[in-house]
Amino acid sequence: MRRKTSTPDAALAEAAKVPGTPRKKAAAAGPKKTAVKREPVQRDVLTKMLSIITASLEEDKAEDIVVVDLVGRANFADRMVVATGLADRQIAAMAHHIEKKLGEEGFNRVLVEGANGSDWVLLDAGDIVVHLFKPESRELYGLEKMWSADLDSNESEVAVGKGEEQG
Q: Any alpha helices (H) in 31-163, and if so which ranges?
């Protein structure tokens, strides 16, 4: 009769007794359980980062800027910003400007993916993830619809841009 093991180390020890390759044994034991918790970001830091990002996008004539609140719904970031650019060069410039402006304010850990002529550029600033799309790609992937508050409630999604009515 087999005993149930309660910890990953015990599962590995149990798997070592079973015939097979180390790879098969590791697969049978399953993934290691590690408790990775994100430290909550201070609200004023998040607000400052968000204002730098949205101001930079507005200066660069980004269209349809949307900020989605991810708190409690995702563990990789607290906010997601989605914006549209009309050309590869504009999108690359928007990404470069955001990275530069965040760096000037001391937020130096910004990772940029796809800035070399892509329909989709991703900036990971840790607590805020920025997606810059061409219009066709934005509609195809529909990230803000996937993460939008419309699926939960209308309070979590905030549109930021020119010409919108406050109220």
A: 43-59, 88-104, 135-141, 143-147
